[in-house]
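Entry:
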Amino acid sequence: MRKKIITIVIIALAALILGGGYLLYQRYYGGAVKFDIQTAPAVGYEHRQTASSHGIVSNYLWMRTKNLMLGQDGDSLFIPSSYMIEGRLSYQDAESSGEYRLADQALLLDMYVRSGDRLSAMRLKEQILNYYDFAAESNAGVSAFLTAYLDYYISYGSVNDGDKIQELVDVLFDEEGSMRTESLSVAVYEQGSFYSLDEPGDGSYSSLEQIGEDAPAEYTDVTGIEISSIDLRLIRNLENNGLLPEGSYERNLELVLGSQVSSSVPLFAYAYADGIYIYSHNVAAAVDVESAVVTMRHLAQVGELPDDAYNWLKMQIINSGVIRQQYYYSYGTTEGAEAVNIYPDIMHIALELGDDDLYDRACTLEGSRVATYTSSPALSMIYREEDGRFVFYARENLDVCLAVT
């Protein structure tokens, strides 16, 4: 009799636990809307082999990035924008930037989802939602997080996550599906004239030749939309799932495609403000190549990258071996510092287009800066040498992780 009572109690408790678990699931997950999301293409074995041949090994890169950069500022969840390891001299201590960019946390969240680390993804997502004032963040940052949040949602999302995604969409877009405007800094000449607003025409730039590229410049603020912040795949995903009105994707695509400088200069403008495109950013006489390549990545993700832009990008790498930060109208070439920020973008463009040769060349550029000292805490990570010190950027290492994982 006593055995029977114990058995009944056990069965009742099990039913209660299962019933409570079911109710909790229904409350937080059961009513979650199922989204149909287009995600990044899978990274195949051949791509991982190509990357590995250049010293970029996905598991090592991911492990080292977490070990080196997480928790250095007393917070194990967020990743700082950069981290400088100890120098050779006794006073050259390791140093974190102490800066937590939303776009970097978005890449970290994406990597947790990609690697199947559900617990870390949930914890990071919650901290991001509690920490950032999204209304005060840049459009690029909010777009990056929304993209990662959608990837998180289709894997682990709850009803509350669906509601929060809609809130963020309402922050970033207006009722017609256009991205909100923000304050942008643009270089101008001392006389206050935007050379970048001149419509590039037949290739004769007399005003530029008279002023000269080395003329002093100052900066002014404009209110507009940064073209490279318009994530077209995100917008299409949001529209397809009823989070943006019909026609949002086509209008934004038209805006981005219309920003191409000219048929002879197949790059893209920096911004759109007051009904006109602003072609330059940090240098008044030149197109910002880094910004243009990010725009190319967004176009490639939706199958809309123009052939002339793609061919220009590939020829730059084939002919020059590197890409420079500025394209000067009068020279017809890229000049300035090496545009190392965009090599991960080129890897992703290659994946989207199925261009194995371009992927290999981008891996070559990244692989030349892989740390190889076996005693280094950053072994297998991608570094930059700045003033004789080795610095590791979260954006570069995480985005390359995504391109090889």
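Residues 2-30 form the longest helix (29 residues).
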